[in-house]
């Protein structure tokens, strides 16, 4: 730690800044006491502020509304917005929004690599070099030799503009990003079941549910304010049942009525068994089957009777061993799920990050459709979004290698033509070929097929699975990194590093889990020469000669352009203007005009403005036959099978206080005692290996190795170990499974075969 008199950005000493932030005044978060939700109730002492502004937390996909207090041009306080869905609450990260702006490592100037060293440079030199290298590559090796790798933490206007530049300007679909590591299995699930992406429910459903089926989500740690709302429901209606499916006894699982600690990667078996129970025990909603559903397996049409036959191979007794669960518990969970008045499922990475992530998503949706727990208050399948803008910014704008805006795909000639007309480029400009998805992209850099890549607002050298292999690609190609801090694992490998403004230093629209579009205002200045990501994208367009394409250049203008493009689609949000978002904490689309209040439940006639029906329970209008699809899936064998050499299954994830690669939360003094370098291992597995609590252990896999210290606990099942992926020093991702799901191309971060041994001291 630097001492308190070290000058820091904005011309204050650290002591002055800490004082201003109230940290020295006894208001600091007590490190070590943050293991539970007491962090939620922490409030720093009142600080004089010049003005409060309405905004949104920059961390997770809960998307809490905040009030941001400014004094002398600095953010000095952040508190929960009582008028937003979070009801004034924030978790520890919400409060730390204030502090991350002022960490030591904020980057002030562009850097260019000379003779192996990154050296300070002017914007002009940096942008000249980038434009030269991209232009050279496009001219000599074709448009597909360059790429953009973005983030669900960029503003919508930024992702939308980058997508337009690369697909309609440069002419390559090599634009992907970290949502591929996160949400694409959920998107592929929704699209293949309902015909369109994004959940049909909303947070209000939490207040009406009688049963929560939480699977592959450590909601307590990763979406703490959603969790608090679940707890509100449980407190006000104690009979509310919470089922948690998670291999580990997480803080979420500890508070469940039924915890199913399944073996990682066996969800397909479990859900098939639950569907088997629904059928056996007459929990099937026959009207749903008759009027609202169709059945498929691969390319073939199926019937309800086929489903019955299919799941007869998945009786609870048949799957119990494989899942590591008792048949009785599976039956109990199925019974509680189906017999409740209204069941709401919540899920995140435990489902999405599997080699069968899309199948898992389809099956959870199927469980709701078959039992009729859908489209009523409290009854809904609801995938929670990870990042603050993976939904609106990336999924809705189609900023992925296979996609185009508002549900279109590059493979569809009509969709390409529509977008070429919208963007005012010649027919035939948009490539029909899918671009490289995340993992492929960095492999293509390794093989030299992609020669230049702009990485923006993400840290793939740390966050990719099997990272060592892909770091090689980043070293090999011409890598440009736009980041707010330096060094990161990725900026260390870059040829050019660009200092990026963040959060209130720029401004734009985020969208969270419940389809809410809401705005972060620009109310502070970035440090040094840092610029917004939007400015960087626009300048790159100008320098590459695509300036004419980028007609809208300011966030609000871009929002208007994007809104007009989406207006003729299911993503209609014509009624959501900057003005409305400044006045209220966001609106849920569909929202077709400025008098529309926003939509809580989609696909419900009378409630969803996109439906032209006024009767019936549902209208799955995004499907040609207006029926949702039940997919039949079998459990596949493991993609990274355990063997004598790699006998344990490792799963990875997060802790409450830290954010991903910890570039933002790692430097914070308030969090310095929070351990992110541990491996949870079962006492018997530890004993067998002579491992004592706290020992350094070596984790080896088919992809690489890393060390952590052992935390011996029976919160993980025998044979399963868990590590958070936050630590750059330890880089557990060197060992993690990089197999991808065949539909969503999302990697299997949650299931890797490993061995663990005590390191020789
Ligand atoms: N504190 C904090 N909060 C965050 C983030 C953060 O970095 N820190 N990141 C945000 C982002 S981008 C995301 S995507 C979300 C992630 O939010 P979550 O998905 O809730 O978080 P994870 O810890 O990755 O994984 C969730 C759980 O999946 C379980 N799991 C592992 N394997 C399986 C399996 O095979 N089946 C099932 N059913 N469960 C399994 C793990 O044990 C783990 O507890 O969090 C968001 N919120
Ligand atoms: N083992 C394992 N690995 C995982 C996962 C897992 O569960 N297990 N989860 C995966 C998931 S779900 C996700 S979402 C990814 C996340 O992985 P990453 O996106 O790589 O992680 P972050 O740390 O969020 O990276 C964001 C970067 O942007 C910078 N930054 C912040 N704000 C701005 C800004 O406004 N502009 C710019 N230009 N830069 C900014 C930050 O300093 C940081 O370096 O990790 C994936 N990796
Ligand atoms: S729950 Fe998520 S959005 Fe809300 S304050 Fe915490 S990190 Fe921010
Ligand atoms: Mo994520």
Question: Could you characterize the architecture of this molecule?
Answer:
Helices cover 31% and strands 18% of the residues. The protein has 761 residues and is of the alpha/beta class. It folds into four domains: 9-100, ADC-like domains (N-terminal domain of TfIIb, Single Sheet); 111-180 and 390-553, Rossmann fold (3-Layer(aba) Sandwich); 184-383, 3-Layer(aba) Sandwich (Dimethylsulfoxide Reductase, domain 2); 648-758, Barwin-like endoglucanases, CATH 2.40.40.20. It has a seven-stranded mixed sheet, with helices on both faces. Strands 25-27-26-29-24-28 form a six-stranded mixed sheet. Helix 10 packs parallel to helix 16 (357-371). It starts with 13 loop residues before the first helix and ends with a strand. The model is unreliable at 1-42 (pLDDT under 50). One ligand MGD is lined by residues 151, 153, 178, 181-182, 349, 353, 386-387, 456-460, 462-463, 482-485, 488, 500, 502, 533, 652-653, 659-661, 663-664, 725, 733, 736, 749. One ligand MGD binds at residues 151, 153, 178, 181-182, 349, 353, 386-387, 456-460, 462-463, 482-485, 488, 500, 502, 533, 652-653, 659-661, 663-664, 725, 733, 736, 749.
